[in-house]
From TrEMBL:
Taxonomy, superkingdom: Eukaryota
Protein family according to the UniProt entry: Belongs to the NET family.
Protein name: NAB domain-containing protein
Coiled-coil region(s): 186-369
Species in which this protein is naturally found: Pisum sativum (Garden pea)
Keywords: Coiled coil
Domain NAB as annotated: residue spans: 20-101
PANTHER family in UniProt: PROTEIN NETWORKED 3A-RELATED, PROTEIN NETWORKED 4A
Gene Ontology cellular-component annotations: vacuolar membrane
GO molecular function, one term: actin binding
């Protein structure tokens, strides 16, 4: 796996472009550039640098590189679309400013002027410059005027023809001047077209280079994925083998424990037998026992030698057992701490139970007090209801009495008021005596 990783790192370092590879990204100096071309070229340079920055970014591992590549893939696709749009716009602009396209779009009169300008250009290319042509025209005019034979013809010619010739000469001079301006403009346009062609060719090459780099990165990513899958399979196999080894070690550990117990038992038997030999009184018996003990010791030594050989083979297992014992001790310590914590929790639970019992007792007493108070309230309500009934009866009697008395004819209203006061005094004198027990109960 390490070798594969090294190979893949070498492949990626080879495929990565160096800083000198982007020499073509330097700005090309030009004498004349239109504002539109300058803005287009600056935008193109910025997008190219952004794309190169995305491509040149590195990561620590192949998986991270692949993840970065797939994350940045949509951005790269959008940049390629922008390059395509710029390339197409440049091509359309070039097709518009091309001389053949301009001639096709001109009207017939302009085409005639263009043919005349081409003729003048052919004269210029043959070796006649503008100064020599002007001199030739002036000399021809002067020769025609200075010639005495032709002078009579000129004088006999109509003045309209002279003016016509002068106008034609002026028109030819103006046409020549306009043609020269057009030639200069066309030269400028041709220079710009050549620069655009170079820029388009450069963009096309950049596009091809980006496509090649993307294809190489796809290949690298596929190789990385395959290597990772192989490593995963190898790790699965290694885990399987380690699990089998752990099982075998557990079996060996149990056998070692059994052997240790057997050795301890044999050692104790040897010590007991030695003590018995010392206790013997007679030398002969001791000698015989010593002989037998020697034979047995030889056998024991032989067995111990065999066991020592086995111990040498499993010394590593013994060390592992010690480590396991240390771990168990730590676990026991942690369990003891948990038990102590549980004891404290148990004490808190007992305290809470006692508090709960005390609260229950208080609740019982409170319930008894509430029942007693409820009974007292019921008694008070009963007494109040009885007093209210009595008041209602007396009120009915009072109303009937008032009705009877009102039927009679009173002499003065003063007597009626006096009668009401007497009845009301009787009523309120008897009432509080009856309500007194209920107030005491409350």
């Amino acid at each position: 796996t390490v070798r594969k990783k090294k190979k893949m790192s070498e492949i990626t370092t080879k495929n990565q472009p160096s800083k000198t590879h982007w020499w073509w990204l330097d700005e090309h100096t030009a004498v004349r550039r239109s504002p539109w071309l300058q803005s287009t070229l600056t935008e193109l340079n910025e997008k190219t640098k952004a794309m190169l920055k995305l491509i040149e970014e590195d990561a620590d591992s192949f998986a991270q590189r692949a993840e970065m590549f797939y994350k940045k893939r949509p951005e790269l696709v959008s940049m390629v679309e922008d390059f395509y749009k710029i390339h197409r716009l440049l091509a359309e602009r070039y097709d518009q400013v091309r001389p053949e396209a301009g001639i096709r779009l001109l009207p017939p009169s302009a085409r005639l002027m263009h043919s005349q300008s081409e003729k003048l250009m052919s004269f210029d290319y043959r070796g006649y410059d503008s100064y020599s042509e002007n001199c030739d025209v002036e000399e021809s005019v002067e020769s025609e005027i200075d010639d005495p034979e032709h002078e009579g013809e000129v004088r006999s010619a109509a003045p309209n023809e002279v003016t016509k010739l002068l106008k034609d000469i002026e028109r030819v001079g103006e046409v020549k001047k306009t043609d020269k301006d057009q030639i200069k403009q066309k030269d400028e346009i041709l220079d710009e077209v050549m620069m655009l062609r170079e820029e388009i060719e450069r963009l096309r090459k950049e596009k091809e280079a980006h496509k090649d780099e993307l294809a190489q990165k796809d290949i690298i990513f596929n190789d990385v994925v395959l290597n990772l899958r192989e490593e995963i399979e190898q790790l699965k196999k290694d885990n399987k083998t380690t699990n089998n080894e752990v099982r075998q070690k557990n079996i060996i550990r149990s056998e070692v424990m059994k052997l240790k117990e057997e050795i301890e038992r044999l050692r104790k038997e040897n010590e007991a037998q030695k003590e018995e030999i010392k206790k013997k009184d007679s030398i002969s018996n001791e000698v015989m026992k010593l002989r037998t003990e020697l034979e047995r010791c030889k056998k024991d030594n032989k067995a111990q030698n065999d066991e020592l050989k086995k111990k040498d083979s499993i010394s590593n297992e013994v060390m592992k057992l010690r480590k396991e014992l240390e771990r168990r001790k730590k676990e026991n310590k942690a369990q003891n701490d948990e038990l102590k914590h549980k004891d404290t929790i148990r004490d808190e639970l007992t305290m809470l139970k006692e508090e709960r019992e005390s609260f229950r007792e208080e609740n019982k007493t409170q319930k008894i007090d509430l029942k007693r108070k409820d009974q007292e309230k019921i008694e008070v309500i009963r007494q109040l209801s009885s007093t209210i009934d009595l008041l209602k009866q007396e009120n009915v009697k009072l109303k009937s009495f008032i009705a009877k008395e009102s039927a009679k004819k009173w002499k003065t209203p003063f007597e009626f008021d006096k009668l009401i006061e007497t009845f009301s005094g009787k009523l309120f004198k008897g009432g509080p005596r009856r309500i007194k027990p209920s107030v005491v109960a409350l």
